[in-house]
């Protein structure tokens, strides 16, 4: 009874055995308290989140895992005269995965990444829906009541879908401008997306004018550019995955977040003058 009472009167004597040889109780408490807050450089932050580091309330960035699925299906450009066998991939890999990733980016306050992911998710969902016979997107243009695929060759369908690609290309051009404050790999991806979409849109417009030879040439060129775009996407994906497992080396992405000064930094420098 007396031994138990003495143990409870001096509980710290028993805990001191867990301290290091040169460590005091106060230094151990400080070490444990600061272990929960990890500071990362702006370059690493931009690399992981594809977004320049900006102040955001809360600590969700420390507990949510960054979704890094991006442009995984950009390497395939559907021909306007066939039913694309990859339409299911557009729904799930291209649509749902990017939509979930964009929503998580929205929660942790990464506006640019969120908008890019969700807009590309909407693009892939639209593309998959257009190619699905269930929705009748091309059947509405078909001159034949028994052959809905005949609508794929009509002037109305190809011209309309070409305009859809043109306006999405304009949106991607805005992303290209904004990506100049992220990294070189993302700039490369956005640039090739803009060029590839322009060539693909030209293919649809020439298909609408029944110029099959020139349409095919533009389609092949657009597919080649978008394939080159996908290589950048795979490289960026690997560069994002390596830090998540604390790999012994990392792939460079060409950080640009510190190359172009931000508006807040310019205002701060102006106030200091």
TrEMBL record:
Membrane topology according to the record: Multi-pass membrane protein
InterPro entries the record matches: AceTr, Gpr1/Fun34/SatP-like
Keyword Membrane set for record: yes
Membrane spanning residue stretches: 89-108, 115-135, 155-178, 185-206, 218-242
Keywords assigned by UniProt, alphabetized: Membrane, Transmembrane, Transmembrane helix
Protein's cellular compartments: Membrane
Keyword Zinc: no
One Pfam family, short name: Gpr1_Fun34_YaaH
Region of interest called Disordered, as start-end residue ranges on this chain: 1-21
A Gene Ontology term for the protein's cellular component: plasma membrane
Composition bias, Basic and acidic residues: 1-17
Homology family: Belongs to the acetate uptake transporter (AceTr) (TC 2.A.96) family.
Protein name: GPR1/FUN34/YaaH-class plasma membrane protein
Organism, scientific name: Aspergillus rambellii
């Amino acid at each position: 009874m007396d031994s138990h009472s003495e143990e409870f009167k001096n509980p710290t004597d028993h805990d001191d055995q867990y301290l290091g040889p040169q460590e005091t109780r106060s230094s151990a408490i400080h070490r444990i308290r600061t272990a929960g807050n990890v500071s990362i450089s702006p370059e690493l932050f931009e690399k992981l989140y594809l977004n320049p580091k900006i102040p955001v309330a809360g600590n969700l960035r420390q507990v949510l895992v960054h979704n890094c699925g991006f442009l995984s299906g950009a390497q395939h450009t559907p021909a306007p005269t066939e039913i694309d066998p990859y339409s299911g991939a557009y729904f799930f890999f291209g649509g749902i995965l990017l939509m979930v990733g964009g929503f998580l980016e929205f929660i942790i306050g990464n506006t640019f990444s969120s908008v890019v992911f969700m807009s590309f998710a909407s693009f892939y969902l639209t593309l998959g829906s257009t190619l699905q016979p269930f929705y009748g997107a091309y059947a509405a243009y078909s001159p034949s009541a028994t052959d809905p695929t005949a609508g794929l060759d009509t002037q109305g369908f190809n011209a309309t879908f070409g305009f859809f690609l043109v306006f999405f290309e304009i949106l991607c051009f805005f992303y290209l401008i904004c990506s100049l404050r992220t990294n070189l790999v993302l700039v490369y991806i956005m640039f090739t997306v803009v060029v590839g979409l322009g060539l693909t849109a030209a293919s649809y417009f020439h298909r609408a004018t029944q110029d099959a030879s020139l349409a095919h040439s533009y389609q092949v060129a657009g597919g080649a550019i978008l394939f080159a775009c996908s290589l950048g996407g795979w490289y960026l994906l690997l560069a994002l995955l390596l830090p998540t497992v604390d790999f012994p080396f990392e792939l460079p992405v060409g950080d640009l977040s510190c190359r172009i000064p931000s508006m807040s930094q310019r205002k701060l420098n102006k106030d200091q003058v």
